[in-house]
Each structure stands twice: as structure tokens, then as C-alpha cells.
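Risk register update: the risk of archive-format incompatibility is retired. Evidence:
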Amino acid sequence: MKQGPIALIDENMPVIVVAINKGHYDKTVSNIQEIKALKGKVIAIVTAGGETVKALADHVIEVPETLECLPTINHHSLAIIVLPYGSTLRKKCTPTAELIKIDDRRIKKEKTPKLKGRLNQDWSESSGTNSSRSKSKREVKKMNNNNNIPKVIDIVVNNDLCIGCGMCVYKCPSKALEMGWNENGFLVPSIIDDCDSNGDCLSVCPFNPFPKKEVKTEDELAEKYLPDTNQFHKKIGKYNNIYAGYSNEFRLSSSSGGLATYVCAELLEKKIVHHIFSIKETSKPNTHYEYSVSSNKTDLLIASKTRYFPVTLATVLKEIDKLEGTIAIVGVACFIKSIRLAQHSDPKLKEKITFLIGIICGGVKSRFFTEYLASKMDIKVANIQKPQFRKKDITSTANDYSFTCSDMDQEEKAIRMKTVGDMWGTGLFKANACDFCDDVTTELADISLGDAWLDPYYKDGSGTNVVVTRSLIAENLIKEGITNKDLVAGLLPLEDFLASQQGSFNHRHTGLPSRIKMAKKNNQLIPPKRYENENVTTDFKIVQNQRMKIRAKSLEVWRNSPDAKSFDIAMGKSLSWLRCFTKINHKRKGVTHKKNRLFEIIQERFFSKK
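Archived output:
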């Protein structure tokens, strides 16, 4: 599509699309996606098998399939002729000569003067000075550039689905994108140069609402990139084994059991990879942490902590072509997915990026989260220094950790997270995209690491990891570590692992259909998801709705008044309602569970065959 037609499209503009399931079908799909992003109404004329277009279009006219050389002069042309004819009849317009019977005097008195005046105006404007003409050309060029918006901006960022991974910046052939802070404290791409809108930026986005069929969800990508697995579970994807344990060397210097640092160190020391992309402290203004390169163990140890602060891969992806050797990358699920999508579009990246370490994530937080915690300790936003999000207390439990940071005087202050309240289950300061992620366990990584939030592991304040191996390299690293006694770890039963992540499964799987329905009601584009058809109880729908409201409100309140005391007051009522709705949901779930168990017992005792 060209810039002229694109400029005409809005929610009131119907667009007729001929989508033959042959030839340039993919380009046609891309054009439809662009129309939908501009909220245009699509009337699609399709042949059998055009399922992708059917899913996107508002109205579909299906015509019989014919020989490839015939459709343009056969069924489709007939449909295009019938559509305007039918429209004129519906609007009670008669296409006869009566439509052109016009009063000559009316033309002379009304139409001609207006037309002549308009022509004179246009002529005087077009016959101005050279500078006037140049200015007009500049304005036209500016208008054209504004219409040629990168697809990832138009479809993802403008729909509040950006997670800030930065892969679009790396893949943009026009170099038209740059990462920066938005008004809600998240890193998102913005336009800095002319864009050719070829769609590369959108193809690598983990929240692309219109992915290709072969990379539609994590399931399709896992089939392609995790061939060495021998087990599968619907909630955790493809895998080899599940472990719980910790690293003897790195446990106390890490946020959890130290296994992420251990795996990275082993990858470097065994020369499996030559560089690690992970998160480290930075001195850049307004940015406490960013992705950087570690090529030895000393550099790596600086990055051995959990950071609940927005970061982007864009800071290191530009180094890929400059570095010799292979690379491993540490990231949360959506970042890992963006890397797999990039490897799909450019197979050379699979040879360069040979190992992915997935961090099981509870949601990406705005930088407002850090500012809020600092404000709770009376540290002003401008004075925040070296925030640490998971300072352990080895004499307490694993979930009894503190947030610490220093002010301009380098005085470190700490606040126990238990005293702050629930910052994860409420949705406070969370990215909107996280509400439409159904990958709880970083299913596309070679190895997935998280916290062992279950008995007896959580009672140990030193920290314990759960580990899911998904490649032979990952499996061998863990087994060798156990054999060499570098790791204290053992196999974890599947049901125990599922229990350790039950809260995330409830929110991201069970509650997802409710959030999707609410988003679609507001005409928001949503990427394809695997849990769209789950049954959601009315009680849980109410909880989901309240969480979404709290997420949005928390960002707005902090943006307008960045002070912890006023924030707590402003959010108090909404959080109280959420606690109330959650209690009701839990109680009814308990009653339902007891009733079901009672029916099972009755069935077993009185109706089962002996």
C-alpha cells in the first residue's frame, strides 16, 4: 500500500481486499495488518484456505477457487462489481441518467464561482516564490514520513504492547528506531529517521499481533529450536529434567541459589560460548542497569543479581557482529522469544547465539517501582544510587528479602519487602504487555531458572533455584555440577515444580482469557495465545479486572505525583477492593474443591464397580 491510501484509512473507512491464497498472499496479509492497525474495516474476498485473512477481516466473502490465471478476471472481479451495485441499491440510489439531470442555472450561479475561486486560490499558491514552493515540498515530505511509520510503532507500541526488548531496533534496516523512556517509566522504541516500513521490526517482536503461522506461539518455536528434549508438559513446554538446588560457590553472592551465575561461568570456562550478554550496573543518567558483555568470569560476577529495573537488549545487540566467537544471553521469557524470532528471520544468529538462559519472571516493572521503594525510605528520585532488589537475610526465609539503595551521601538504606505489601500479585507498576504473556517458565530457553517457592526450600534464607533443562548442553552442565559437587541439587517432582509457580500459572493461564476479552472489548490488538479458551469463573474475572485497573492507575498516579505517601493514599481503596475480591475468590474455590472431592468419594464408595 502507498502513502496516499494509507492516509485515508480510519475506523470509518471500509477497505475491500482481494486475497487469493496464492502468489503475493503474504504481502496481502501484511497490508491487512497495516489497515487493522489504523482501525480500518476490512472486507476480504478470499478463496478456500485463506484462514489467516479470515481471522483478520471484519467481513469475508468466500468465492470458489479457480485456475491461478483466472481469478482476477472471474470470481473476484464479479464480487467487486456486485459490491458497489448492491451498495447503491441498499442506499436507494438509482444508477440511471436521472442522477446527472442538473439545473444549468444552479451550476452557473453556485458551482462555477466556487470552483473558479478555488482554482484561483490554487493557482496563486502554486505560482508563488521559489522559497514558498520549497517549503511546500518540505511539508509534503514531512507528511509522507509521518505516514510511513514503522510497523512495530504503529501496531505494538501504540497499542501498549511493547515490553522494551529492543530487538526491533537491532533488526530495523533503516536504522529508524531508538530506545528511550516513555512517560510511564518503560523503555520503548521511538522514530529517529526515515523508515521504509518493510516490517522486519514487527517480525521479531514477541508481542506481534500478526505473527507468521510457523512462529505463531511458543509451541511452534520450541519445535524448531529445542529438538533435544524428551518430555513435554502443557504448562512448562518441552524439557528434559527439573531440578532444585544451589551453587556452592555463587549462592551467597546471588539473589537466589546462584545457578544462573554458575551456568554462565561454566559456559565461559568450558569455551562453550565466548561471551555472555547479561545485566550490570551502569553510570548512565536515569539508568541504573543495562545489558553489557562479559567475556570472563571476573566481569560475569558483577552481574550476579536480580534487577527489577527496565533494561533493553538494544544496548548489546549492536555488538554481535563485532564480537568473535559465540554468545549466550540471559533474559526473561519475552526477551528470549524475541531472540528466537530473530534467529528464525536470520538463521546466522542461531550460529552466533548458541545458548539462552531463561529467568522465570513475575512481570516487568516500570522504573517507577524503584522510585517508589526509594521514596519509602525518603530518598528522592534524583538521588537514587545503586538500588539492590534482593538483599538476602540468611537467618530468615527466602522470601524475606530487602530492597536497598544509597542516596547522594552514599548512605545505604534498606526496607523489608514484606512491609511494603504485595507488589507482584496486585499488578502495581507492571507493563501492560505482561498481562498478555502466557510463558511462565521461559519455554524457549536452553535452561530455565527461578526461585524454589515451596516447602522446604523457601525456609532457607540463602536461596534455592528451580531448574528446567531443555537442551543436552544444559542437562550435561547440571549433571556434571552435581557429580563434581559444585552443585547441591536433585531431581524435583513435576507436581512440586508446578506448585512452586502456581501463582503465575493462575494469573497467566487461568485468568488470561478474561483479560483478552476485556482488551478486545476496548479494540486493543492482542497476539495469538494458547490459553484463550480457558474457563474463568465470575469471581476470578472480577479479580482480573481489578488487577488491570490497578496496574494502569499505579502508573498514572506515580507519573502525576512521585511520592510514596501520597501514592499509598491514592491506591489504598483500589488495593482494598482487590484484597476483598481475592478472598471471595479463594473461599469459593475452596468450597468448590471440597464439593468436587465429596462427589469423588461418593462415586468411589457407592457407584464404582468392584
